[in-house]
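Our consortium's second objective concerns turning raw sequence data into structural hypotheses that experimental partners can test. To show how far this objective has progressed, the report includes one record in full. It was chosen at random from the queue rather than selected for favorable results. The single chain below, 192 residues long, was entered without modification.
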Amino acid sequence: MGCLVVIGLVLVVAVIVLLVFVVNANGDSGDSGDSSDAADQAQTQDAAGTEAGPDEDALANPVQCRTEALDVAIDLEAPTFSAGGPVQVPVTVTNTGDVPCLTDTGHESMTVEVSSGQDLIWSSAQCATGSAERDLLLDIGASQTHTVTWDGTRGATSCDSESTATSGTYSLDVALMADGADAGAEQAFTLD
């Protein structure tokens, strides 16, 4: 009698597995025909329902980076610079998202500002140099560094100013426009 119960349970499990296989094979073709945002479709799920990473289509068709998928950092060589001299501002952008994505670090999308308290000293938006657009394709976890140079002058209203910034503590603010919002970083530095 016990042997019949075991055989019966094995048959029930086999039927359930067969039904699940047939429903999955017929019920989901994987292509619904709509063209939703690739970033929204990027995550696939394994059989246990956990995220399995980007699918092949998301990897082959990069989308614009979303703000939450970008880490922006200022990587100054030192915390102190000579007053009146140039300050190199290396800005590193890292894709922390789950899919490769495109971002623009040209002066139309990325601004660097130097301020002292509420006083705006210089802005790359006012004193733009380099390309207006600088598109980057960032792989998952990849970083790119773009250096902006402040010449040490007060150029918030006129980039032809010959007035140099004086000794003191200043703040660097970087804003990178991505999907309608800013990703950014801030760092203090000193001019001697």
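The partners drew two points from this record. Residues 2-27 form the longest helix (26 residues). The two ends are 93 Å apart (CA to CA). Both points have been shared with the crystallography group to help prioritize constructs.
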